[in-house]
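Field log, afternoon session.

UNIT: design team B
ACTIVITY: writing a sequence onto a fixed backbone
BACKBONE:
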């Protein structure tokens, strides 16, 4: 059995920032960090546009209160405002701390950190490293981690959370290199496992964003919060879904329909292309539905709209958003200096997740906590984003709450014994589970079932939703879930068996998708990213509350939890 004081699952921004904080707080603690990828291949590395913080470099009139208000309004008033206050007040400090670690932010000519406009933010407050911000931050964090004695288990897949009598005791993990299984026993377990974009067929997320941490938490009987809120980013490159950062619109790009018109004036006249993502994604979807989308041959009635950078000029495009230019060029052969890019909404971010308090401690219900279990980053729901996240607030959440959760864990494990744990049944179960996958004699390949599943979620639980469509979706999803036992693996070996990993990830996708659909069906209103055609209005009287969804193989139970409102009373949300 492997032993640590703390085991962190996830090497993205949230997990690595937490690990660093624990090591800084108490260098004598033994910290393990596991990731199924190498940590610097976590999805955080792909973050493009930036990280929000009121540094007042571009705009001396900006305040944390304005950042908090924008965030709460953007969330359609579902965010917990105590958590938003912490996020926005601590933002300048964590960004300066990152700079001191060595992160190379882009700068104004006078040397101060540059700040740009972003959707839903009322001031220019997004700090950035061109359009490769996640790369700049994650590499520096991991470099800093290497120097402080954290044991990194890279390319190990965690397949179970060990939770006995209300207390987490460790995890079960599988080494991808050779199929070895190991149990880790620890005083505290932290999940920072990122998002689940792969539940859908078109996403900006990496292949590893399969919601494993969410599924393991749900299987262990811990509820998940606000799973119905799935963020569709307005500008996924057509047809692949790869992200074209909001920074491109922050720097001045236009959205154009088949009539050559900037249609955002019909939807959010005061903010135009820089309206929040839920509103912009719905606007694009409506334009496409109304026949004002564009076809690959340029004719009207097609599946995408144009993102037009041409008026920005070559110099600005190449210095501020070079990566986005490169993506369109590499994937579609488009030179955005002279041609518009085809875009449409793509699944991007999970507002919901593992419910935590502002110390990162996981909730087992509205009032109770799970002993020894922590979470942060996209996998968690502290809820700073409520029903819709603003761009550049997620990297910020990872760093602010990664740091806070790390500090809370360092405190929690002091003077505490390692829990009693018998590893035998866990090892036997995991061995049986993997052997069963290898022995199965079905006729389906993993990719076939995964594709059907992703198509189902995309068709029945997309930008617009309704009772009838979602009920049909749940029925279809149940049929596809039955096929899981008919998966056939070609590779029966132990060395780098990616089929075993994909089969385990498919299990995660299936659980997460069912939770999303069930939570969405139960929320009979439209709020933020959750847009019901049969309930088009926000209904504060009935639904100004967080969903808690409890999973069991027999079905999903839905409960609700109050929203914390401290600073701003809910108002109608207009831009
Ligand atoms: C293309 C793109 C651009 C973005 N741009 C921005 C931006 O400009 N600004 C912004 O604020 N946000 C942006 N976001 C969102 C933001 O990047 C993410 O929400 C954030 O980085 C998530 O960090 P994380 O630490 O929570 O998880 P991740 O970085 O996703 O890391 C998850 C970690 O968990 C590990 N893991 C998962 N499951 C297992 C398992 N079963 N066993 C072992 N390890 C496991 C993975 O290996 C990985 O190390 C962007 C997102 C995308 C997809």
């Amino acid at each position: 059995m492997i032993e640590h004081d703390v085991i962190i699952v996830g090497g993205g921004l949230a997990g690595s920032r937490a690990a660093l904080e624990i090591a800084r707080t108490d260098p004598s603690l033994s910290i393990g960090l596991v990731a199924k990828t190498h940590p610097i291949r976590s999805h955080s590395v792909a973050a493009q546009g930036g990280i929000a913080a009121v540094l007042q470099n571009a705009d001396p009139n900006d305040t944390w209160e304005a950042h908090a208000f924008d965030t709460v309004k953007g969330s359609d008033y579902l965010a917990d405002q105590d958590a938003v206050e912490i996020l926005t007040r601590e933002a300048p400090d964590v960004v300066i701390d990152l700079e001191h670690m060595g992160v190379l932010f882009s700068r104004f000519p006078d040397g101060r950190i540059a700040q740009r406009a972003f959707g839903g933010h009322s001031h220019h407050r997004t700090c950035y490293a061109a359009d490769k911000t996640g790369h700049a931050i994650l590499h520096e964090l991991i470099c800093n981690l290497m120097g402080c004695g954290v044991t990194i288990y890279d390319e190990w897949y965690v397949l179970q959370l060990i939770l006995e009598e209300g207390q987490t005791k460790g995890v079960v993990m599988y080494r991808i290199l050779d199929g070895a299984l190991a149990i880790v026993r620890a005083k505290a377990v932290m999940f920072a496992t990122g998002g689940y974009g792969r539940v859908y067929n078109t996403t900006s997320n990496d292949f590893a964003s399969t919601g494993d941490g969410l599924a393991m938490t749900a299987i262990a009987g811990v509820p998940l919060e606000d799973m119905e809120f799935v963020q569709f980013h307005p500008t996924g490159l057509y047809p692949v879904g790869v992200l074209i950062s909001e920074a491109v619109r922050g720097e001045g790009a236009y959205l154009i329909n088949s009539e050559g018109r900037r249609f955002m004036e019909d939807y959010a006249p005061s903010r135009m292309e820089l309206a929040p993502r839920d509103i912009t994604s719905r606007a694009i979807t409506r334009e496409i539905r109304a026949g004002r989308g564009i076809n690959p041959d340029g004719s009207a009635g097609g599946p995408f709209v144009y993102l037009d950078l041409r008026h920005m000029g070559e110099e600005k495009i190449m210095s501020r958003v070079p990566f986005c230019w490169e993506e369109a060029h590499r994937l579609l052969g488009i030179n955005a200096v002279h041609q518009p890019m085809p875009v449409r909404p793509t699944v991007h971010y999970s507002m919901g997740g593992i419910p935590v308090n502002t110390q990162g401690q996981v909730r087992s219900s509205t009032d109770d906590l799970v002993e020894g279990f922590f979470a942060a980053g996209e996998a968690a729901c502290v809820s700073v984003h409520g029903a819709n996240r603003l761009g550049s607030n997620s990297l910020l959440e990872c760093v602010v709450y990664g740091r806070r959760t790390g500090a809370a864990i360092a405190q929690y494990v002091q003077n505490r014994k390692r829990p009693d744990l018998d590893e035998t049944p866990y090892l036997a179960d995991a061995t049986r589970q993997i052997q069963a996958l290898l022995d199965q004699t079905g006729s389906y390949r993993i990719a076939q079932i995964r594709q059907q599943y992703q198509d189902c979620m995309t068709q029945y639980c997309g930008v617009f939703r309704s009772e009838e469509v979602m009920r049909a979706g749940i029925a279809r999803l149940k049929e596809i879930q039955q096929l899981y036992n008919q998966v056939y693996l070609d590779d029966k070996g132990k060395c780098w068996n990616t089929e075993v990993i994909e089969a385990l990830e498919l299990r995660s996708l299936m659980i997460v998708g069912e939770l999303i659909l069930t939570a969405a069906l139960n929320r009979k209103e439209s709020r933020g990213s959750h847009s019901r055609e049969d309930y088009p209005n926000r209904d504060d009287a009935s639904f100004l509350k967080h969903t808690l969804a409890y999973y069991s193989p027999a079905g999903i139970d839905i409960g609700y939890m109050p929203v914390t409102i401290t600073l701003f009373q809910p108002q109608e949300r207009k831009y």
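LOG NOTE: Residues 498-522 form the longest helix (25 residues).
NEXT ACTIVITY: expression trials, pending approval
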